[in-house]
Every structure is written in C-alpha cells, then in structure tokens.
Amino acid sequence: MLLCSKIVLVAIQDEGSTYVSQAIGTLERLGATNINPDFRGSFAFAGYAGDTKPSCITQQQHNSGEGPSVISVQIPLSPSE
Asked: Does residue 29 contact residue 3 with C-beta atoms inside 8 Å?
C-alpha cells in the first residue's frame, strides 16, 4: 500500500478504546508505537504518511484518571527536512 506524504493528527479523549483496535495497524505505519489506550484513557499523535519518517513524529497516551494527552511539535514543511 502506497501512502502519500501527508501529516496525520489523531486525538482520542474519554472513550476510544472500543474502536482504536481497528486503526492500530494504520497508526503504526504512520509511526505510532505501543498504542494501548485503556477505557476512558487518552491518546494524541502527530505522524507522517510517507516513506521517510521525520523526527517530528510524536505521541503521548494516558490511562483513565491521568489527564489528557498533550503533544507539542514543530513540523518542518520544506521538502529537504
């Protein structure tokens, strides 16, 4: 499957554990790792759909009661980065 070069942002808050299993394979191809939000947990991810994965790929997840997952990243938009 050929992925285009696109920035992908994902956020789950409250209850995404029911449906995230259907997306885990795709999220991993975009650069996510160890995806396992629990019931009422949170997940935030900035990924990239392209052949070369840039260093700006980031994610965070928290279990229920640990607060929201927050990420902050600068994404370079020039083709050379």
From this structure: yes
Say which residues have a Cβ less than 8 Å from residue 27's Cβ, sequence separation at least 6.
10, 35, 45, 47
The model's pTM = 0.76
What ranges do the domains of the chain cover? Answer: 6-62
Rounded Cα gap, residues 12 and 59, in angstroms: 11
- Tokens representing 57 are 């790929």
What is the identity of the amino acid at 38?
D
pLDDT of residue 80: 52
* 75 pLDDT higher than 70: yes
CB atoms closer than 10 angstroms to residue 18 = 8
**For residue 58, what are the β-bridge partners?**
46
Mean pLDDT, rounded, for 3-27: 79
